[in-house]
## 1
Amino acid sequence: MAKISAGVATSHVPAIGAALDLGKTEEDYWAPLFRGYDFSKRWIESEKPDVVFLVYNDHASAFDMKFIPTFAIGCAEQFGIADEGWGPRPVPDVMGHPDLAWHISQSVIQADFDLTIINEMKVDHGLTVPLSLMFGQPQAWPCKVIPFAVNVVLYPPPSGRRCYNLGKAIRRAVESFDEDLNVQIWGTGGMSHQLQGPRAGLINKEFDNAFLERLVNDPDGLADMPHVDYMREAGSEGVELVMWLIMRGALNDKVNELHRFYHVPASNTAVGHLILENTE
Ligand code: DHB
Ligand code: FE
């Protein structure tokens, strides 16, 4: 049977992708950030996941005002790289796992979560930057990826509680897939950041660190945090953090924290990163 062996949380700042693509990772500004992922790259090389279920948000690349799915699951064989205004990132296309994606759709929709099924889609920095941070710059990504896009761009985004419960439904779906697969679930976005208006550039280290701690050790309580708290404390785009609760909901109540990293700044954003192992 398939199983979820671990969860990864990471921010997905586009400038991180540019730093990698332009060979700037050793520069003074960027080196401390990339050092925070050294452990992660070694770890994932030994873990060799077959599939990453990658929770992220599209930033008006695949979707626009015409279609705004709250939860969208990528069921295609392959996903191209979106052009976000300066050409597509020079990274490999993403290979999907249609059989598992359809199985998860069937199971999760029957468990009363409405997913939008996507058979053609390009993926943006929300998905590619986490892949680059964890896998570096390979010719081809070393595993299959199921893109799972959450609307956190246009109000109303889903509540933390709904995301947490959805994670639990995704876990049941994965565990009922009849093939031995090592599946990881990743939650991306955040941490505190606001890209617009008078509070642009907002960073809240205290909030971010408390969020990291609660995500590991009090996820059920954290799931009750209302959007207005994310907005006030972590900025308008800080609400991306609800996606981390999908990842956390798919893991055991008690997890083994293998790695925690927090760094400011990366462009206008605080970067947070966790690796959580699903202990037996
Ligand atoms: C930026 C964009 C993002 O989508 C994000 O999650 C963090 C930062 C940015 O444009 O800097
Ligand atoms: Fe984002």
## 2
Amino acid sequence: MPVVSKLRVVPAHIAQRERQTVRTQIGIVGAGPAGLVLAHLLHLQGIESVVIESRSRKYIEERIRAGLLEHGTVDLLIETGVGKRLQREALTHHGIELRFNRRGHRIDFNDLTGGKTVTIYAQQEVIKDLVAARLEAGLPLIFEASDVSVHNFDGANPSIRFRVAGKAQELHCDYIAGCDGFHGICRPSIPAGVLTEFERIYPFGWLGILAQAPPSSPELVYTYHERGFALLTMRTTEVSRLYLQVPYDEEIDAWSDDRIWSELRTRTAADGNWKLNEGAIFQKGITGMRSYVVEPMQYGKMFLAGDAAHIVPPTGAKGLNLAVADVRIMAQAFAEFYKTGKTELLDRYSEIVLRRVWKAQRFSWWMTSMLHRFDTDNAFDERRQIAELDYVTSSRAAMTTLAENYVGLPWD
Ligand code: APR
Ligand code: PHB
């Protein structure tokens, strides 16, 4: 079949020749947390990889996402040498507050989990640190790749084709890591009938803002209110990150700054002298909420990680942490293969990571279900949710369940 190249119609075999080919061990699609942490861990094991990203460096370094790291994620970044700025700038938290009926209840992670903590450090800061480490080490990370496609991963010669600056390239590799997020091309390239999808879509989304205002509380506040959920979190000691539950089809234009502050004040109101700090809003957006898992997370010589294989609603802040947990196992499996030639861990990759994925799904669904209004007319559900919050904040056993999941279950 003829192929159009530089406005000339050339036969396919000549187009093939014009495609520049490169070889590596692992071809990684996507430079989000999953792709970049994987590339970093592989490098430390002496395994070569090339990361292919469709967006620009600026875009991925500025993309606003969540910002809460489990203690295991933090340990991994520090132990592997990319946690220096994190150690200087991040905020360590020893607990969270659950607020309902105008009263706050602290969940003390320190006490309940034997000293574990969580850390506030925005996802784009993690991305900046990983990109800088990779580029400083002179390792391949290709931005603004277009027409990315994956080939032959069910056979012996997997490859990734793409274009950069109009030039066709083909990366031959031993394995492909599909780290290209929920809307990427890796998962949909797996033949029909192989994957099973599990999904729950929620009838609401989160309106998120960044505001030039010091955090109103030293720790995160998760609020249940009859008008809907609200979350007070932060980025720095000067910048607040605040979220409101809104209907899933809500338009951002319906939310003026005044309306956002008024709704936040109402939902987070508490007895005593607590006050919501307000300031200039410099970013706002709405994201939908979904729980999604695909099984298995591998096919032939392609392995999926992070949002390419699963999505959690943000209520438990598990998205980035799960992506890191996946690639930690994937890197171990590749290391075993290159050291011993054995594919035992690679063969079991999906089975191993899905156990953690489903526990994080359960936790994220549970936090979401406990804290959001699903049906504002349903008085039974409201009483039940209040009873659950009352239980979770008064039983040490229940608080421990929340705390150990929130800080991150052990990595086994
Ligand atoms: N080719 C190359 N890159 C692609 C393609 C493609 N066809 N499609 C998507 N990408 C890139 C995206 O631009 C993005 O940079 O893949 C990357 C995927 O990154 P993320 O979406 O951040 O996914 P992941 O690395 O799995 O991290 C999961 O990110 O979405 C948040 O909340 C989520 O915190 C979680 C974390
Ligand atoms: C955030 O800081 O963006 C954040 C924190 C906790 C969550 C979700 C988002 O549950």
